[in-house]
Every structure is written in C-alpha cells, then in structure tokens.
Amino acid sequence: MKINNRITLFFVLGSLLLSNNVYSKNWLSAPKNTDFYDNGMPDEKKVKLGEFLFFDKILSGNQNISCASCHHTLTDTGDGLSLPVGEGGQGLGVTRNTGTFNHAIHSRVPRNAPPVFNLGARQFTRMFYDGRVEANPEHPSGFISPAGDDLPGGLDNVLAAQAMFPVTSAEEMAGQTGENQQADAAAAGDLPAVWEHIASKLRNIPEYVELFKTAYPLEIFQASDISYVHAANAIAAFEAKAWRFDNSPFHRFLRGERHAMSRSAKFGMRLFYSKKKLHCARCHSGAFQTDHDFHAIAMPQIGPGKGDNLDGFSDGHDDFGRATITGNTEDRFSFRTPTLSNIALTAPYGHDGAYNTLEAVVKHHLDPDISLQNYDQSQVVLPSRPDLDAVDFTVMNDPQRIQPIAEANELATIRLNNLQFRSLIDFLHALTDPAAMDIRKNTPSRVPSDLPVYD
Ligand code: HEC
Ligand code: HEC
C-alpha cells in the first residue's frame, strides 16, 4: 500500500513537473535568492531609509498621504478598497473616508491599489496594470515611462522607476493646483521640478540627511547631494526586502516538500497548470503566476475610468488598459496578468477592484460573459459620497459600453464541478506565505518628519 502510494505520487509529480505536453511550457521552479535584486540581500541601510520614506507623508504635496496610505501593512500592502482614496482622504483601509471641506478628494483614483508582493524579483520588468513603466535598456534612463526623457538616470531597477510616479499624481500624492508647489509643478507637467521639490524637503530634515549619508556613503556627503532618485532607490530596496514572500506551501512544495500542500490544493495546482483542463497558467505562468503580458478578460469597469472614451462617448469613464500605452485598438481592455502571490489576502480583485471575493473573481474567469452581464454592483468596497457614487457604474449601467469589453475577452468558458472548484480555491490559498499574514513589523513607529504614521 505504502509503495503504491509512493509510486502514484512519483507519477503525479513526474507528470506535473516534466511533461511539456500537459503542463505550461514555463518551467516551474522555486524562486531563489539570485532571482531577486541584490541577490535578495539589499543593503540594510538603504532598506531602513526606504521604510521611513515609504511611510512618510513628507513625500506628498499636502503632507497628508504616504505610499503606505494605499499600500499599508495592516491591509496586506493594498488598501482593502476597490479603488483608493487619494490625498485629502482620512483614515486607513476600509475605514478611510473621502475627506472634509476643501480638503475633500476630487475624484476616486481610477484603478485598484495592487499589493506590492515579490516585485523585487527580477522577472517583474513591467509596472502598473497597463505596463506604462517598463525596463528597457535602449532608453537612456533604462526605462520607458510616462516621463519620457525627463526620467533621470541612476535608478536601480524598475521598482525604483515606479516610485518616481505616485508623487507626481494630483489625486494620489501631489494635490490640486494652487494647493502647494509640488501640485503646481505636477499640473504643469514639470516632473523634474516635482522631484526636486521633494528632495529639498528631505534635505531640510537633519535626520534624513544622516540616513541618506549612511545609505549612500559614496554618493552623498552633504544635504545638497540628496536627490529623489536616491529616495526612490531606497524605497525599492525596502519594498523588495520587506515584501518578498516566497515561502508559501506551493513554493515549499516546489522545493521538494511533498506534504507542504494539502491533497486538494495539489489537485487544484494540477488544474491550474494543466493544459488539458483549466490552463490558468497560459497567463498565470511560473512560480509567481504571471506571464507579465497583457490580456483582455472582460473585467467589469467601475469607477471614474482612465479618461478613455469609446466612440460616441466623451465622459472619460472607460479604461482601455494597455491600448492607451501602445495606441493599438486590439489592446483595448487588456491588463497585465497579476501575480497571485498571497492572493487570498488581497481582495478586492481586478484592475478596478470590481470583485470582492476570490471565489467571485475565479468564477468570472470560468464564464466571463455571464459574470460581466450579471455583475453584482453591491460588492464594491468604496466610501460613499453622492457625487462620486454617481459615476461609479456609468459603464456597467450601459449595455453599449459593456459590449466592447465582452467582445475583447480572450477567455474560453469552462465548466468545473464543485470538487474541482474547491480544489482550485484551495490551491490559490496555498499561495499564501504564512509570514505575509502579519506584516505589521514592517511599520516604523515614527518617521523622521514626525508627521503621523497612522491617520
Ligand atoms: C492614492 C493611493 C496610492 C498611493 C499614495 C501610492 N500608490 Fe502605489 N499604486 C496605487 C495604484 C492605484 C496603483 C495601480 C495603478 C495602475 O496600475 O495604473 C499603484 C501601483 C503601484 C505599484 C506597481 C505594482 C504593480 O504590480 O505594477 C507599486 C510598486 C507601487 N504602487 C508603489 C507605491 C509607492 C512606492 C508609493 C509612494 C511613493 C505609492 N505606491 C503610492 C495607489 C497608490
Ligand atoms: C487569458 C489570460 C488569463 C487566464 C487564462 C487566466 N487569467 Fe486570471 N487574470 C488575467 C488578467 C489579465 C487578470 C487581471 C484583469 C484585470 O485586472 O482587468 C487576471 C486576474 C486574476 C485574479 C485576480 C488577481 C488580482 O490581484 O486582482 C485571479 C485570482 C485570477 N486571475 C485567477 C485565475 C485563475 C484561477 C485562472 C484559471 C481558471 C485564471 N486566472 C486564468 C489573465 C488570465
């Protein structure tokens, strides 16, 4: 009996890992230190500085929001909302409100604040749902980005390049024209002035000057040597270190611990990676479950939109995703395949947080058309304010605007029985690294500006 079991297990493992016909062409191997920047060991002093900066509202124009407001340690590096409440809002996570009086937010941020797990792995060369920041050695700065030639050199990696941008967005961190210098520079499209303004704020805080000098002993000798690029590199080092989670039961299984996952999760894994059945790995490939490519899967469109307009519309409530970056109509409604690291922890799901449960977003994949047409609007997690609520479902209430989203869909309809569905969900839960279930230790108790860390 024992021997039989072993033989079965051997066969299952063998066919899972070896057979090219049945499983995705992407070789599945467990992540190693060398798969991450700095071989997984970024400089501790840079990491410490980056942690402070990530939680410090000094980076924002009105000194009222930090990176962590939308990527918090209490909400698994997201914010628990469908769409973030940017600068002007108050509170954290699902209790964050839309702000009061003239500080109130002007609009919701149009896309979901994604988790920041494992982005220090070198394979993540494209940032954002539409990939608008991307590593590209042919570009002088090393990156394609909305800043074009204004993006300075010296950025360590694409994660650092990403950190250049939230501070330039009016809704996210800069603020509205007339409110502060950072907002004015951002509104004028003068990104170098935004970065210089933040650097000047940091230079004026002696504790930061010391931290920068210690983190960059060969580059920074005095306050005037500090640039926002140094800050972005430190933030990236922190993100890469603090939010690396590659010890999930699934990763342990890949490292040879056969009993790390339950039987049901293993069955779910086979469905997920098998070409014969679900083949989720057609897009969610590899050990972090992403091909880093763009696909249209008919995700319901909620919120204010990205300013895109289908023919005959002009309110900007559509979001064309990748098409806005490439200019190709065929890329409309395509979004980058997200990693599924710690996916059970990071609801709501999708580029606009349209689905609030893992079950719902997985069911959407099995029959996108029906799921889109019957979308349940009550599941969104958004603080209510009448003028904001008024636009949230403009697209979803208009069959003419839903249709192009449905037509762009690449997914086939799949039928799963109950057992298969439960196993698939069990597998997705096996992507949770237990260490990610409580990441409060990555919250500094104070920051050098002495602005509040918690709202
Ligand atoms: C107001 C909320 C908000 C704030 C503040 C904010 N972000 Fe984000 N972040 C988002 C949203 C929304 C996206 C996705 C936008 C998109 O894809 O178009 C995002 C995307 C990202 C990504 C890319 C993730 C991926 O998988 O592509 C990283 C990394 C990130 N943010 C880090 C930061 C850092 C660092 C800061 C501070 C400098 C910051 N964020 C500030 C909301 C926020
Ligand atoms: C054709 C490519 C493709 C296939 C096949 C695919 N997905 Fe996805 N998946 C995506 C894309 C793209 C998104 C993000 C879409 C968006 O945000 O609009 C996504 C989102 C998700 C999410 C939400 C992630 C998040 O962070 O919000 C989950 C969970 C998920 N997929 C699971 C699965 C499962 C399980 C399967 C197999 C049944 C599967 N996917 C098959 C492309 C695919």
Q: What report would you give on this structure?
A:
The protein has 17 helices and 5 strands. With about 450 residues, it is mainly alpha-helical. The chain has 2 domains: about 220 residues, Orthogonal Bundle (Cytochrome Bc1 Complex, Chain D, domain 2); about 210 residues, Cytochrome Bc1 Complex, Chain D, domain 2, CATH 1.10.760.10. The strands form 2 sheets. It has a 3-stranded antiparallel sheet. Strands 4-5 form a two-stranded antiparallel sheet. Helix 2 runs antiparallel to helix 8. The protein is globular, with a radius of gyration of 22 Å. The chain binds heme C (2 copies).
Number of strands: 5
Q: What are the segments in which pLDDT stays under 50 over at least 5 consecutive residues? A: 1-26
Number of helices: 17
What is the number of domains? 2
In N-to-C order, the SSE pattern is HHHEEEHHHHHHHHEHEHHHHH
The CATH class designation of the largest domain is Mainly Alpha
Question: What is the end-to-end distance?
Answer: 60 Å
Please tell me the overall pLDDT: 94
The major β-sheet equals: 3 strands, antiparallel
Give the strand order of the largest sheet, numbering strands 1, 2, ... along the chain.
1-2-3
Structural class: mainly alpha
Rg, Å, rounded: 22 Å
Strand content: under 5%
CATH architectural name of the largest domain = Orthogonal Bundle
Shape category:
globular
* CATH superfamily descriptor of the largest domain: Cytochrome c-like domain
* Distinct small molecules bound, one entry per kind: heme C
List keywords for this structure.
455 residues, mainly alpha, Cytochrome Bc1 Complex, Chain D, domain 2, 2 domains, two-stranded antiparallel sheet, 5 strands, globular, binds heme C
